[in-house]
Design a protein that fits this description.
elongated, 357 residues, mainly alpha
């Protein structure tokens, strides 16, 4: 008998030494899912075995809740915080109940307020105030519920209502629309419409034409101004050039002629187009410039002119001041005189060639 007992004891001892210990892993609990499930039938959920709770905790918490406050209270053990945080737990529970309640949450000794029904931060602040005056989680949740009720009595917050599901509206069957034809329009009214349409077209065409004419006029003014600027440069160059003439009489007359030419240019700038005289003014100045150059070269002995040609050029040079004066005075004979001088100069250039620069 003793041998059998010793053999059994030895067998148990060897089994305990040789057989490895198998650690049983605690079953993982989805605290959020359990809380959401419990809140489907009650506004209070206390997880079984939560420290600081007893069989009457649920009833005690329920007594401080009011239906119009839309508050739910949840108590979970400290293990629920492993791998997460209070905000995440409160947010996931709120999503699980469609964000229709204000959350009061305790996990072990930690408390947290969360709500999408109240303005941002209000639920958190009301829980912080409750935690400051209460020593245990259950008591803090009770004070929190009272704080929410007091806040709601002082502030208007609409009671949440489920969003109704949209109802599909049947689309009416489209019926073909028969548009009126020209024949359907009464004759007198049709005539009025056509008249108005023609009037509109005429007005549009008129405005287009006027805009086009305005652009053309602006372009002509711009080109005319550019020509006047070139004439001004030519006269200025001539006034400098005539200072080199040795013949005192010719030099003084040409200086005066240049002054008159500047005066006529100012008349052109402030008047409408003057026709033939304005058109030939640049040609006249070009001839004058050629003649002045030939006269200066003759006086310097670089290209002497024949006595006859010299007198012809000198006579023309002495008449420019008279010609420019007539141009300023708009003398009727100015066009004939202008043509005569230009043709005379052209003839001298073509037959003798002495006037070429």
């Amino acid at each position: 008998m003793k041998f059998r007992f010793a053999f059994l004891f030895l067998t148990l001892l060897l089994f305990s030494v040789l057989v490895p210990k198998v650690s049983t892993k605690a079953q993982e609990v989805d605290y959020v899912a359990a809380a959401v499930a419990g809140l489907q039938s009650s506004n209070v959920y206390v997880h079984p075995g939560t420290p600081g709770t007893n069989f009457d905790t649920v009833n005690t918490l329920n007594q401080v809740l009011r239906p119009q406050d839309n508050v739910v209270l949840i108590m979970l053990p400290p293990e629920a915080l492993v791998g997460t945080d209070m905000f995440t737990i409160a947010k996931e529970i709120s999503i699980g109940i469609n964000n229709t309640k204000t959350i009061g949450l305790s996990v072990g000794e930690v408390v947290f307020g969360y709500s999408l029904l109240l303005p941002e931060g209000v639920a958190f602040d009301l829980m912080e105030r409750a935690d400051d005056v209460t020593g245990d989680p259950a008591g803090t949740l009770i004070t929190y519920s009272q704080n929410v009720h007091l806040w709601l009595s002082r502030n208007e917050v609409p009671t949440p209502t489920p969003t109704p599901a949209p109802t599909a509206t049947p689309k009416p069957t489209m019926q073909p629309i028969e548009l009126p034809t020209v024949d359907d329009i009464p004759g007198p009214f049709r005539a009025v419409c056509l008249s108005v349409a023609l009037l509109i077209i005429v007005v549009i065409l008129f405005n287009v034409k006027r805009a086009s004419d305005t652009l053309k006029q602006q372009e002509k003014k711009r080109e005319r101004k550019e020509k006047h600027d070139i004439i001004e440069q030519t006269i200025f160059a001539l006034s400098t050039k005539v200072e080199g003439i040795k013949d005192n009489k010719v030099r003084k007359d040409l200086v005066h002629a240049c002054e008159l030419a500047f005066g006529f240019l100012e008349i052109l700038r402030h008047s409408d187009y003057l026709g033939y005289v304005e058109e030939k003014f640049p040609v006249l100045l070009a001839n004058m410039n050629r003649q002045v150059g030939s006269f200066i070269r003759h006086e310097g002995g670089r290209r002497p002119l024949s006595p006859d040609l010299y007198e012809r050029i000198r006579t023309i040079l002495l008449n420019y001041d008279n010609l420019f004066q007539k141009m300023q005075d708009n003398d009727p004979s100015v066009e004939e005189l202008l043509t005569s001088i230009i043709d005379s100069d052209s003839a001298m250039v073509s037959t003798i060639g002495y006037l070429e620069n």
